[in-house]
Structures are given as C-alpha cells and as structure tokens.
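User: I've been going back and forth on whether these two constructs are worth ordering. Before I decide, could you fold them both?

Assistant: Sure. I'll take them in the order you sent them. The first construct and its structure tokens:
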Amino acid sequence: MKILYSWLKDFIDINMPPEELAKKLVSIGIEVASVEKTGANFTGVCVAEIQKIDVHPNADKLHLVDVNDGTSVMTVVCGAQNIAVGQRVPLAKVGAKLPDGELKKAKIRGVESNGMLCSTDELKLPDDGVDGIFLLPKDAPLGTDVAKMFGEPDCALDLEIVPNRPDLLSHFGIARELSVALGLPLRQPKCAQLKGQGEALKITIENPADCQRYCGRVLKNLRPAQSPDWLKRRLLAMGTNPKNALVDVTNYILYEMGQPLHAFDLAKLEGGEINVRRAREGEKFMTLDNKEIALDPGVLVIADRNRPVALAGVIGGLYSGIADDTSSVFLESACFNPPLVHVTARRFASRTEASKRFEGGVNPEAVELACRRAAELIMEICGRPQEDMSEVRDVYPVKYAPKAVEFTPEQINRILGTALPDEKIKAVAAPLSSGLDTASLPWKFLVPPHRRDIETRWDIAEDVVRFAGYDCVPASDTPCRLPGQEMPAVVEDVELAREELTALGFSEVMSYDLISSAEFALLGGDEKSQPSLLNPLSDEWKLLRPSLLPSLLRAFGYNERRGVRTAMLYEAGKVYSYVNGHPAEKLGVAGLMAGSYPADLFWRQGEMKETGFAHIKGAAERLLARFPGCKIDISTGGKAPSFMHPKLYAEVVLNGKERIGYLGKLHPLTAKAAGLKAEDLWVFELSLETLALRRNRKHMLKVDMPSQFQSSWRDISVLVDKGVSFADMERCAAGVKAQAPLSVELADLYEGKGVPEGKKSLSLRLTFRPQDRTLKDAEMDEAVKAVLEALSGKFGAALRS
C-alpha cells in the first residue's frame, strides 16, 4: 500500500521529514518497505516541439534533432528511436538540474548538443510505458515548465499492511494512527454534505448478512471531463492510470478513505432499482474484460431488475460500465460480507484493490460519508446545478453495535510486564475509541467500527505498548518457558530424517502441499479419489498431494531449467488420502538423486560417477539405520508402480511384513511427462507415520566400542540362481552362528562367458574383526567355511572355481 506524504497532510499536520515519518511508522508496528520521491524533482526542463530529425554524421544510432522551445530553435543529440517530427517533448537545457545531477554542455561523437530530450526515467516521473523519450500532450504550450505539469516534489511510502488491519489501507487510516502516535488533531475528509433533489434508485438487500449497508446516489446531466491535474498526480503516484473523472474519483476515494465505490452508467440500469442478492442458478455475467462467466447462488451480485450488473465488492459488469459519453451515473457505496467477497475474488481470479479492502472488512459507519464525498467531487468536476444530484439512499438493516471490552490498568501492566501509570494507559486508549469509560473498574472500551481486530484486553494491551513505546517494557533475564511436552513420535522421526539426509549432503525442499492435475497424472490413479480444494487459487494448486514425489520433480525441474543437472534433494512433509471416506494426512520423507556423484564441480573430476541404484539404496539404508528397534528389509520382490522403472525398483519392508516405502529409478516416460530432460532420476519415499507407529521407542541403539585389533577380510565368488538377491545373501551370512562377519559387501557381479545359464556370479568381501583378538588363518578358514555352508544350504550357492 503506497501512502503519499502530501496526501497525509490533508488530515494531519505532520512536521517531520518523510524519512523520520517512516521510522515513526515502524515504531508503531507498520512496516515501511521503501520511501520513494515522486513529483517533479527537477528544474530547467521545458516543453519543446521537434521540427527536424537528421542522422548523426558519426554514429548510425544517434540523431541530430532540431527542437523549438517557443523562443528559439536549438540542436540536440538524441539516441531514442520513438521520436518524430511534430511531437512535443521535455527539453532539458544546459544547466538544468535533473534528479541525477546538473546537465552540462557536451560534444557527443564530435557534435555539440545544446540540451537533452528526456525520458520518464531520467526525470524520475511515473513510467509511461514507452521505451524512449517521454511524449507530452500535443496541446502542451511551448516553453512551459514541465515541472509545473507534475506538481511539487513529494514522497511515497510503500507500507506492508498486515491482513487484520484493513483500516490502514488508506491515507485517512494511516493519518488516524499517526494522530494517536504523535498526539496531533485529526481532520475528517472534506465533505460539505450538500443536499440533493429527489431520491435515488430503489435499493433492496435480499439478505442483511450478505450486505450490512448499501448507499446509492444518482448524478445526472454530467459533462464528460478529465480529472484535474492534482487528482491525476495523486492517482499516478499510487500506480493507477487516470481514465476519466467518473472512474478516477471512485479510485481516489478508495485510496483516501479506504472505502471502495462503484459508478454504474444509469442509462444502462433497467427497472429503476438495485437488488443486492445471490446469483440465480444458471445466470451469466459479462466482466469488464469481455469474459462471460457462469454464476450460482454462492456468488453475491448487484443486479438491476433483470440481470446482474456487478460481482459485489469485486468487479463491475461490461454492460453497465462507464463510457466516454456517460452523462448520468448511479454511485454505489457499500459494506459487503468479507468471506463472500473473498470466495468470489478467488473463484474468478479477480482480486482487485476493492476486493482486498472488502475482504478485510470496511468501516460501515464511513459508507455514507464516502458516497457523499465522491458525489460532491464528481459534481465539482463534471456537474452542473445541484438539482441534478439526488439525495443519498441509505439502506442500513444491520447497524453497527460496538462491542465493549473490559480491562483494568493492572491487567494491561500484567500482560505487558510494565508499570505504566493509569493516566498513561488512559492517554493511549482514549484516542482509539470515542467510548472509553474510566469512571469505575473495570474500564470499558467500546470497539470503534474500523477496528474489528480488537476483541480482548490483550488486543488493547498490544495497542497500548505500540503507542506508549516498546522501550517501556523492561528487560528481563528470566527465560520464558512453556510446560514440558513430549515430542510426538512421528515428529521426532521427521527431525531424525532431516538430520541424517542433511548430513549425507541432501538439500531440503519445502513446497506447498498442493499439486496440479498434471502432476497427479504422473503417479497414475483416479483424480476423483484424491482430496482436493473446492476453491483453488488456480489449477496449479488444486489437489492435496498423495506423494512427495511431484514436489521433488517440480523442484528439480526448476533447477534443471537453470542449468543445474546434479541434485540431491529431499522433502519431509505431509501427504494426503481418503481413509474411511474422510481426508487424512500422514508424514513422510522422500529423496531424489540425479547427475554426477558426488557433484559436477567435484575437484577430482576423474573420480565422479553417475548416480545409480546403489547410491539411492545406500542413502535410504543410511537413513533407516537412524531408527532403532525396527528390522528393515530392501526387497526387490514387489511390483513397481507405473511411474517407476520395473527392473530397477525395490520396496522397503518393515519387520518383514509391512511395506513402508519404495526406492529405485523413476520411469523415463514419467520424467518426460514431467517436462524433465534427465532420464536417470533415482528416488525413494518412506512413510514416517507408519514407521513411528511400529517401532519400539524404548529400544536404544547399541554402539560397540571399536576393536583395537586389525580387521581381516576374505573374498569369495559364488554361483547362485539369477533370482537370488544379494540382500537375502547378506542377511544369511550375517546370521551364521560361528564367527559372523562384521560386514558383507558386494565386490562384483558377473553374468556371461563361463557362467552357466540361469546363474550369476557374486563376489563377496567378508570382513571380520573380533573385539578380543586378530583372527588366525585357521579361524578365518573356519569362518568362511561356515558362511559358505549357510549360503549353500539356503540358496544352493557353489564356490566358483
């Protein structure tokens, strides 16, 4: 929200520089994003007309331009491409003081330039959307000081307004806060309260819960007119382009008072009446940008006798919009139900400045004042006799009843930890409400209509400390501690997963829980069986994700499009499904690896390897090792889902029974459908919710002291059937009753010449390291023999000669 420094002075006599004002706003909890100078902060620039354009003799892209300022003709060098003979442009003469410095006479490629033709950027004026020289109106008088066309130098403060303070979305609202903070009197918006002749259109509110108040006024026999320069300048400073006086005044009141208004072309309204109602089933509405949309009873509309003419609080309709020849209008000012406006704006992707204020809630007591002020401004600019303005029709079925909040000074001090005197608290609270009763305890504070965020004494305490100054809260060495609470098992597992994957070199992804239909299609399945939003922001955020995989693919795609081909990503978050007909959520973790390992920019380039099945399996196993009390198997016996490669897939099984996840290679067709160039993407996904439920929390991970003796190892090569997995052989070898090996590693896999049909050769490295000695050769032979006997008995393994 932009606030113009000079505009604030309409309501409060500020006597401090804009930079100091920005600090004051921050001190009372209003964040200031930037302070920018606006208006004409230059001198020596006049209106001139281009009379002749020649090519620069020493530069193809420069021109010699003869310009006339009304008293003389001079030549300037210009490189802009949008100039033409007859245009009127801003000419900065030698000695002109521009925002970036003083203009001096100069030779450009050997030709002397007697000035400079200026762009909006060089003059620091609002962008006109033209790439090149700023083109002035054709009727601008020659020699006119351009600075006078854009007003005095000013400042615009860009404020970050929190959602629960819609009353600050206006100049008057900010001035009201400053009047309390600075102890200065506040002036109300100017309004002469002119009496009109006759009544406005008949107004009917179908349901008072949808519209608390609705005012309207008819203005007739208006002459087409442009807004005065002072009004245009203020709108431009707010980032709004002026159109015509009728539209400009409604925008002006919105920025001034925070009350959105709408002007209907009276000639286009049918039946002489206005109905605030829900849309009928099957009704159509044509928006201002010429799009027809279908309505239903969930949408609040403004209708004439026969059809909707506006989406209440959001946008007007095409058929009732203001045109250049509009001579009579119906001016609307209202207070609509915030949730209804919010739903409509989101549903039709039409979040306007008006809807933003209605969604927060406008001040119902200011509705009529805004209508009167706007009508008087319009009549001042476009009107004729006062008889052409009707009286205000005000329908106010649900009048504002202020809520009383009770508190005592002692309670406020206890909340804040302060020792503020009663008079100080009263001095701060009194200007916030016209109804503060301090005659007896507890004090009674009547919540003003523009401060619906105040509901309890804690809210009042917040305002007291804002305006009294946060430095009134004494420093304390006493730490604030909440009662101890045991961390839920699944949350503990999420933290364990984050720690381990980060330690392995993975980068964490944090994304929305929502995905698009296209992303859901990557996983297969029926979209109707997945929980979805009734009113999504867009089709990109429609479904609650059933898996973390689409989010990881989106993140990898973002990096891939920017040249990053190597990635190690993970996300720990929620996934969703229906359980017994109701939406349910579970926590899980997923990882993705792609490209070279360890990294493209690894300093020892020759030792890089392309990420493969072993890498993703190793990462998953290392992660699962952090969860004691569970026996976790990696099994290749499961059927791969459609989005995974059928030959490079494994399931993660808990205690030999329950599937808790999967790992392997993403199917190349899935990667292609996701718009990715990489074909070798390796992923895993685990259900931490299931793991937390099944594992024994009392089981502690036992760590053996490292042996002080040297380890010993032997390599053996065995022939087994192709269907036998290394994981099963590893578990078998580790379970021998004799001297069990410390580790069993796969050193080599061979299928080919010399290996019988249907067999494969596995080379295993058995490592032994007892705690009490170094094994002798005879002991090593006995241990290897025990392992071979176990493998032979279970898998028919034979020692390869």
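The second construct, handled the same way:
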Amino acid sequence: MTTHPAHAARPGGDTTFVATRVTSSRLVGRSAELTELDAALSDAAEGRPSLAFIAGESGVGKSRLLSELAVQARARGARVECGDCVELGGDELPYAPIVAVLRSLAREDDPVLGELSASARGQLGTLLPELRDGTSAPDGAELAQSQLFEALLSLLEHLGQEQPLVLGIEDIHWADRSTRAFLSFLSRSLWTERVLVVATYRPDELHRRHPLRPVLAELERDSRSRRIALEPLTEDELAEQLTGILGADVPADLAARLFTRSEGNPLFTEELLAAGLDGRGALPATLRDALMVRVERLCESAQDLLRLLSAGRRVSHDVLAEASGLEPAELRGALREAAEAHLLEADEQDRYRFRHALLREVVHDDLLPGEHAELHLALARVLERRVAEHPGDPYLSSALAHHYLSAGDQPAALAAAVSAAKAAESVRAHGEAAQLLERALGIWDRVPDAEALAGETRGTLLMRLGADLQADGDFARAQATYERALEATPPDAGAHAAALVLERLAQVQWRLGRATEARDSIDRAIALLPEDDSPERARIMARNAKLMMLQGKFQQAVPAARDALEAARRASEVDAAGIALNALGFSLIQNGEVDEGRARLREAIAIAESPSDAAVAYVNLADALHVDGRSTEALDVIHEGVALMRAEKIDNEWLDGTAGEIEWELGDWESSRARTPEPQRGQSGTTLVFVALRRAEFALADGDEATATELLDRIEETVAGAREPQFIGWHGDLRAQIARRAGDSAAARRAVDDALDSIEFCSEDRQRIARLAQTGVSVEADAAERARDIGDADAERVAIAGAEAYLSRSEACADPPRPVEHARLATARAELARARGDSDPQLYADAAAAWLEAGRPYPAALNDLDRAAAFAAAGDRDAAQCALDDVVATAERLGAPWLLAQAHGLAGRARLSSSGEQEPVAAAPEPAPPADDPFGLTPRERQVLELLARGATNREIGAELFMAEKTASVHVSRILAKLDVRTRTEAAAVAYRLGLAA
C-alpha cells in the first residue's frame, strides 16, 4: 500500500506527523542478517542444505526479515513455502506448520505431489486427507512417525529439485512435540537436498524448562546451522524506519523521542505512530498499552469481533460469522474496519488472524473472566458441528478440546480430549495425544458419569496414555502410568487384563534398566494367568523367554522360548511368536547350535508384522553371529536389515548401532564413529547405555580417559539395574582399562571383580566373562610387575595367583572354541607369562595371530605392542623394531591416537624409530645430570620424578614447579624413556626401589 503522510497543525504552529502506512516500505537495519540468510540459500542451491534460526523479542522484526528473504529468494528463482506454529495455551496443534504447507500445495494442485510415491502420498494423507488416493493410506498399525518424516523429507527433496526450496517455520517457541521432532529429524537427515529451513522464535519465551531449549541446543550446534539474533534498531536505523513509514524526512527530535520510548523495537515504533502519537505528552507505558489504544478506537462490533478472534486465534469466515452472531452486513463492516486499522489480516488459507501475535495476546489478556468463557464456548459449539462433519480431524479435534476446557465446560472438555487424543494418535503425534489423555484423566473425578462421556474406562485410558508415552520415548512416565493402570484394574476385570498391564509394565521397566522390577512384573503375570491358550498368556511367556535371553540365561531361555512359541501358535498370536523366535534363535547360537539358531531368527524376520519387528530380529541375528566370531556375515545381515528399513523410510538406531559396533571390531573406525551419535538428552535406559559405552570406547582409543570416565559415570546406575551381561561386562572392562592406565591396579581389579560378580553366577554369557577374565589377567600382570619393582614378594605371589584364577575362567569360556574367546585365551596366556616375570614374544605373536584370524585388528596390534616390548626387554632390537612397525601401521590405518602414542613411547624408551613421530615440545636447556645418577636424570627431572612418584598429575607437577602442563608432560615422557618403563606407576616403583624419590 503506497500512501503519503498527513500533516496536522499543533497548537503553537508545530506539525504533527500521522502515519497512514503501518510498516516501512523497505527493510531497515538488517542487511548483515539478510546477507547471511542469502549465503545459506546459496549453499542450499548448491546441494548443501542448512538450517537458520532467527531469534528475537516480539516486534523486533523476525517475520519481516523472513518475508524479505522470501521476496529475494523468489527473485533468485527459489521456491518458498511457509507455515507457522499455532499456540493454544499448551494445546499446540500437531504438525501445524507442516499441515499449512501441505494444504497450500494441495489447494494449488501442485504437480510435485503427483511425483511422490503412492506410499509417501499415503503417509502425507494422514496429515491432510485430501492427499489420500484411497489406496495408499497406510494401515494404522504400520504407520510410524519415522515413516511420516521420511515421506515429508521426500516431499522436500522433490520440491527442491527444480529450484532451491526455502521452508519457513514461524514461532517455533509454540511448536508442538511432533514439529520439534521433525526439525531434529531434518537436522540429521538432510544431506544433499536443495533446502534451506528458516525458523523464527522468541528467546524470551524459553523459560528454563521450555521443551524447545534442548532441541535448539542440539540443532544450533550443527555445523550447518546458523543462529541469527535480531537486536533492536539503533537510533539512526529507527529514523530511517520512520522515514519509510511517513514517506518524508522525520525531525530529529521526533526520532529521538520515539527511540527513547520504543527502545528501538520496530513494532512498538509502528504502533506509536499508528495510534497517532508523535512522542510528545503522555505516551503509553508499554507496547501493550499502545496496541490497546488502537483497538479501543474501533466501533463496538469490531472490538467484539477482535475479542472473539483472540480466543480463536485463526478463524475462518463461516466460523467467525456463526460464533459472533453478527448480521452479514455488520460482520463485513466490522471486519473491514479492523483490517483497515491494520489489526487483522487473512492468512494463506483464508482464515482471519491478528497482524501480530502480540496484538492477539493484548486483546485476549484484556478479556474479563465471563467474556473469556463465553467466547470460548461459542467457538466450541461451532467447532463441534465441524468435527461431526469431519470426524477424526486432529486439528479440529484439538481446537475443540482446547475451547471447551477454556470455557470451563469440564464434561464436554473430557469427551473432546479423549476424542482429540484418538485423532492425534492417528497421525502418530503421541506426545500431543498423551497431553490430551492426561487432561482427561485430570478432570475425570470431577465429572459425573465420566466413563460414559469418555466411552472408555479409566483403566483403558491409562493404558492408552502409557502406550503413547512409551511410543514417545518417555519410559519413566510410562512406568508410572502403567502402575496406575494396574491399580485401576478392578478385580472383576479378570487375570488376563491385569497380566496385560504387567506385560506392558515389564517392557518399560526393562528399557529403564530396572531388570529386577521387570522380572518381578513378568513373574506376577505368570502367576496370575491360568494355563490356557489365551493371547495374553502367549505374550507373557514370550516376554519371559526374552528376559532370560537378555540376562544371558541361554540354557533356560531355549525351553522357555520353545514353550512360548507353541503357546503363541495355539493362540494365533504372531507378535508373541516373533518375540519367542528371537529369544530362541539368539540363545541357540549362544549355545553353539548356530544353524538352527540362524533359521529361527530368519523365521522371526519372515513373520514380522512390521518393519520395526523385523529390525529387532535382524539386530539379534547379527549380534549373535558377531559374538560367535562370524562378524563379516553379521555385517551382511545388518546391511540387509538397513536396506529393508530404508525401503520403508524408517530409521532404526539399534541397526545402526550394531553396525557401528561390528565395524569397530573389524577395523572400520571411521564408519563406526560416523554411525554413533553423541549421548543426547532424549535418550534413556539401554539406548543411552549403548551409545555411551560406544562413545567411551572411542574416547579410550583417543587417549581421552576423562571423557570416557564421565560417560561411564553417567550410565553406571542404569547398567547396574539392567542386569544385562552385554552392558555389565563392557562397562566393567572399560572401567578396568581406565584404572590400568592410571596405574591403579586395585581399582582395576575391583572393576573386573564387580562386573564378574554381577554376571558370572547367573549367566552363561561366555563372551563377556571371557572379556573380563582377559582384562583381569592383564591387571594382575601389572600388579605382579609393580610388586617385583618394589621387592614385595607376597604381593607378587598374590598377583600371580589372581592371574592364574582369571586364566582358568578364560579357558572355560574357550571350550568349545570360538574365534574371539580363543584369541582372548591366547592373550591371557601371554599376560600370565608377563605376570610370572617371563614375557614371551612368541605368546604375544600367537595372540596377535589369533585376533587377526577373528578379524579384530586393534587387539592384534595391542598384542604386537607387547611383543615389541618383550623383544626390547630381551635385547632383540631388530625384532622389536619389526613388531613396532606393524603396530604403527595399524594405528595409523585405524586412526588410533592412544595406540600410536604408546608405540612412540616404547620407541623412545627402547631407542627404536617410529614413523610419523611428532617432534617433542622444546623445553628449556637444563644442567647436566649428576655423575652418580645411573639413568642420566637432570636435577629438574629428579624434581618431576619426586612429584610423579607421589601420584601428581601433569597439571599438578606444572603448578608445583612453575612450568606449563605441556612442559611437565615432556619431562614425564623423558623420564619414562630414561628409566625404560612404560607407565607412570612403573616409574614410581623404580624411583622408590632405587632411592631416586623419598
């Protein structure tokens, strides 16, 4: 709208400027921000998708900046699609901005929709029924949120093929759980799509527990993300804005007064001018007051209409007409007056909304209690008729539930919330469904005849709520909900109903790492059920067999799984049959019956009712084969499972995690690291344990013991509660490795023994027992060497006896032989020789060969390192050099910093060469060593050794001796080389034995 300023005479001859345009004709003060967004668009155009987050307080110009970007993007040939999040006072509409984009595409009959696969259109049809073609709608049981996200990603990819796409999402501080999850999905999944995602939000809305905070923390760390913080305008920029609004130069005193009042907020400035103010006299105290000045100038009908719109937020013309009760002519006049005052506008879907969210907030906050209830009730009654015409529409249903609750009509609010939860579940918006069900349950006791209104019992609603929380990953709240459901199950409901609740409860307890509680829940369910052919009994029996398998009770799991399989077949319960087959197949392979176990797991894959069920069987088959030493075959199985999931457009973290674990063992460290995410806020239970253990293993390979310790500390309680040998053994072994590196044999021994105590007498998991036993022999070898260094014969005997005891466990685990357990036994025998003071290079060579035969290059290289040390100790420098060269080559190929550092350290101590050795940090020249020092230690090195012997860290040594931490590290390295020892502990032992330290 192009207009010109009006001039009015003020008393005394001054001129008052009255704004006839609301916004400046040009964007002011945002050139740097626009340039950055333009660069992000250029990246997207070249196949480097990115995300940009525009942050700023209300009225600072986020939407205006996005609009300007849209104009420039279209001018450059890009496509722009926008949607915004709709706030309903905690009842945010699921996928609101995504649905807005889909509706726009459908309304224009965009040809891109026709390019999508029938499966993708079916997925999108769950959000917008008009996209459904009648044959492509997925079965509700098969629909998963990840499939929907993949369909949306496919849509974005197609939209960006011909021209780059800008996807704008406004006001994500009001985003629903599903939209937040979709943003996280995009940050992980966008790869080469020509897409720029731009989201706006108000930082001042993000209170400490706001659900968007952790999401933003994750997304804004992404290297492809940009955060653009909008600051208020400067005084010069505000003067330029005023000129753009008024169409003429603005007196400096007027600009200064408005800048003082508005503090540079563009919207406040606009509202002050639109209200006819020039910065003189009694100005509104706040932006809200300025906005109300404009509202109160309207006729009463227009003000009533704005109050109704403030309750409805976005309202179509027919709903507004029916709810307001105004005659058509009066309605049109009121709407036109409000529009001409620039208070409301029509959106892309021809619904009325306030021009700015803050305008709506001001009007709604000004409502009297009676007005508030009356307006929401009027809207609810109109929407109820719309819901009857479009049953199952999640957006109409959510709005209806919100308005009845806001109106204070609790019976209607309960019924609407239950119905809206079903609609949300239909689009797999489980978080939103859970909120609605919690609301219904919260008012249940205050509503007469609640069960009739809800159409379900309280116990049934609690089971639905638990399932939604479980699907949303909130296992702790799901457990509490199932416990409430168990209490709400009346005795006359029968044993089968209670058993079903207990089975669900056991699932979430296990996921939370509460194995004992899960075991108790299953035992209670079994005790409740009669010996019949019911589906409930089949499910409980299958879950029982699975828990046995997970706890490493393979001998018991096999007959239990066979019984469960028969029960499932009699009850025609396919899901229970799949669980039983998984437990049976995995346990059979662990018991050495590989062929039958493989066949059973293949059967589980074949009968899987959903892709996620098939993924479980793929993971179990691959893991069982990997444990059995058939790692290459295991990786092929995983790739097969991944291919199936990709065809179904599903991500599966356990498939990826298992692939990463196998790749790590086989030596493809780069791929393994890429597959493994950092531990995230949303992870819990065994998922968090698995990711944290993988990351801790990476940290140890990098020589970062502090990070590894932090990760292990984080999951320690969950590991202890899980009672799964696969996690207990792994966790204990990593703890022992960290303690060994610190020279703390006692702590390392405790870590091994505690883990063995947890699994050895209740599990047949040979792999984890063998792992701990091998580490235990190494721990005792360290202790025996230290005892010999200080002349403690009793401690040496104890350590050797301990090593022999661990070796006996290793021998038991290697019978019958499997490749990995055979290699562990070979390493344990070599370490026992070291414990006895007779390191044998050939034993280490045999162990390295066994590890290579099993396809594990890293432990082979560790044995080669010990072989090189044994050769060096025996004076065979040529053989030591040859072995060390193999270690360096493997370390460089794998990308193993800690192993490479150990190789360099041995080279320095044994006067060998190591390729790629870094130049040491230069230290200040020191005096020559005393003549009576047999190792050539300088006085400064003697001081460092004294502190080292007391257990001081490099940082503590540096602080004590006034040197840099890195310089202290160089001194320590030189001392180890001169003393010809490998560890700080050994250096301390030599120092004490020879009197070099007190």
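Notes on the second construct follow. The first strand starts at residue 6 and ends at 9. DSSP finds 48 helices and ten strands in the chain.
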